[in-house]
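Much of our argument rests on the idea that a fold can be written as discrete symbols. Part of our work consisted of pairing the sequence of a single chain with a tokenised description of its backbone. We regard such an encoding as a compact summary of how the chain folds. The amino acid sequence and the backbone structure tokens for this protein are reproduced below.
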Amino acid sequence: MAIVRVIKDKSNPYVMLNKTCLCDEKLSWKAKGLHSYLLSLPDDWQIYIEDLKNRSKDGRDSTTTAVNELIALGYIKRTPSKDEKTGKFKGGYDYEVYEMPIEVNESREINRVTENPKSDKTEIGKNPIPENPKLLNNKLKLNNNIYSLVIEKLNNLANTSYKSTTKKTQSLIRARVEDGFTLEDFYKVIENKVSEWQGTEYEKYLRPETLFGTKFENYLNQRVKFKQEKTTKEEIDFYPNINFETI
């Protein structure tokens, strides 16, 4: 996510904002607060809807509504994320946050995916942007933040203690992102399999090697089953030839 500010004083611990958004009567207080919060974040902060909703009492739907308000009025621009080297779309979105709103039509380029996407340099519309705003690069990239978010989610739900710095784990997550899957997809897979396997004989497979492997897409699209309270010996003996390491 890129953030366009009027003033940015790195030595100042306080947040310095243009008041345009705060005085915009077309915005809800929720959207105004979220906008101020986004502008207060460090330059290298990676922003995800799932992460934002975990930082307040609002749920995912409420957080998404606030983001969409800001998009509709030009305070946020959202575009499909693409690989910087190949130019191919890789899933997810890149965001730009503005202190002063850009043209509304420009900000509504939300879900349009074209063969020749626009440059990262945004052409500013009718609403003026102060001269020489500093554009801070904060795009959805493969970095330590996405690794830590995924593993933190797994550890919290499955009561495990995996490390996001493990090379094998990072390799699995990176492979799935390169396939076009998003952070929300990782969260859904984790939630699906924890719901199905926790408290059963398969709980030991709640691990990165299994969840983020080649069956990731199957896990993502499966219908969540209610887990059995206990797997009986008869049930286990009924499937003696199954290699559960490949599940």
